[in-house]
């Protein structure tokens, strides 16, 4: 079992009650996976919210589907492996692996029912009322069918490869998340049934679109294929055809003894993942038991892995429809990021601007290209810059950073890139980027065996007045131009010597494996981040016990680490006021008597994905402390990853961070409160109360600041 899994699943006493979620005192932690599914439920709730524009609701359904795929790939295989190994370990809330998987399946059944209801009874009828239709080939008009026929002949038929299963043709390999058509056949006059599979080509767009004025018709190409089965199986009798979609386990490990090359390990894991065990088979309703059995036998899975869903399978592809309809009245109002006021002059020397003051940027409210991209591209072009060092975890296929770093290396600058090869689902892209940079002459480090490099950091070294001056950018989010448009993240530009010297040491650790632990300002994991956060939590508890004001505010994606949670429980019992903003899963139980009565947990689900990590400690008698971090309070982040947290010490920047937290606290539109029994309750404006959505308030706050008319935004 991987060390990370072992660390995340501590040993606990025998289970006292089966349904621990009905008894908050039974175990002090919520189940991580059930809480993850609760997050998926909150996303699905946005698809059902009539206050959200219709096409945005469709997007939330697509996001839910994508999240569900990720959950199965990451979590179900691990549990099934534990069951096969007869593991005695229990989950955070005391469940055995069998009980854990059973609880997940019951929750997924409920979520699946909700998805069916939302699509069949709410979203699809609402779309049709607006003239937006999803129709199979047989429902098209004669004119539309003629166009579909032409498209099939020209674009689809040449790439189809029907694969039959018989003694001479084994069951075909079916790739992860691919959509297939299963066909039952027989030869005329014979009784034997044959199974065949047709892969719906992933190289083609899923939808054939017909537009007439404001009316849109979207036809899935699988229905075009089904209408031509006689062409694909001439002379055969077609008994049944159904759709199915396979999900495979993504939690696989390379079987390499004493690995010496991290690239070899990652490439082997990618190969292993391609052929990993099946963890889910989504099927269409009314599939015969005979075809089900063909799938169960061929995929070497069980009946419990089959999930019935309404068409279309793979609802993440509905995002294409939501983006393809030109109906601004059915979407959120257009949004354009502002340029950060400190960077308003595009002609100004960015390094001079950073020398004047530390600069805080808040994405997507402030633009990524006018800040982060500008910083890196300026460094590449500047003849005074002698070195650029950058971590790359997840970036885009058309990333501006990799070509820019390659140009810098080719021009003679020293370029060091830490490319994390083990960034889940981005491994192949990162391998390609690493090779591109190596070919340009950059120093490329693939990562550290046993650790993922998750910190988001850029260091620029510039020659100024017979000395070398360092500039750096430290952020909570990835160097990804696309996600920066929809993820909320924070970043700091600074040339402070103490912080930059720490960043120099951090890159020395990444590239040269130094053992430095005593950083001046940064909190670096796995060396010192956990003990320092625990120290600050315990300090607030000590202040509370002494009768002094004590407060903690923490914003993150997930909260799971047992040691941190126990420290928060102790602080709560000491009287510390604790507000936690946790977008995703949360294993901490808030509001439990004699455990966490002073802890409140809120999740913000809205137009943008809340991704920033921000930590505040009152520190009565000293200076208030604010940190931006790449890490969540999770065991994997604090123990098994290289992470970085940077203090924000400029009073003006602290005031801005405090305002962001204050705005989050007033949300009565997108906020969900976690209850002590594990349920989530969405906030609603009281009668006569103004609706306040934190993300929209931050949009307005940023616009006002850019226009130089910043006033009070809250309320």
Q: What percentage of amino acids are in beta strands? A: 15-25%
Count all strands and give the number.
27
CATH topology value of the largest domain: Endonuclease, Chain A
- Which range best describes the helical content: under 10%, 10-25%, 25-40%, 40-55%, 55-70% or over 70%? 25-40%
Q: What do we call the CATH homologous superfamily of the largest domain?
A: Endonuclease Chain A
CATH architect. name of the largest domain: 2-Layer Sandwich
Radius of gyration: 27 Å
Q: Determine the mean pLDDT.
A: 91
Count of DSSP H/I helices: 20
Q: How many independent structural domains?
A: 4
Q: Alpha-carbon distance between the termini? A: 51 Å
Largest sheet: 10 strands, mixed
| Overall spatial form | globular
- CATH class category name of the largest domain: Alpha Beta
List low-confidence stretches.
1-22, 711-715
Quickly give the structural class.
alpha/beta
Explained architecture:
- The chain is of the alpha/beta class and 715 residues long.
- The protein has four domains: 3-117, Methane Monooxygenase Hydroxylase, Chain G, domain 1, CATH 1.20.58.310; 159-207 and 216-310, polyphosphate kinase like, CATH 3.30.1840.10; 341-516, Endonuclease Chain A (Endonuclease, Chain A, 2-Layer Sandwich), CATH 3.30.870; 524-706, Endonuclease Chain A (Endonuclease, Chain A), CATH 3.30.870.10.
- Strands 14, 18, 19, 20, 21, 23, 24, 25, 26 and 27 form a ten-stranded mixed β-sheet that branches. Strands 10, 11, 12, 13, 15, 16, 17 and 22 form an eight-stranded mixed β-sheet that branches.
- It is globular.
- The chain starts with a helix and ends in a 9-residue tail after the last helix.
- The relative contact order is 0.09.
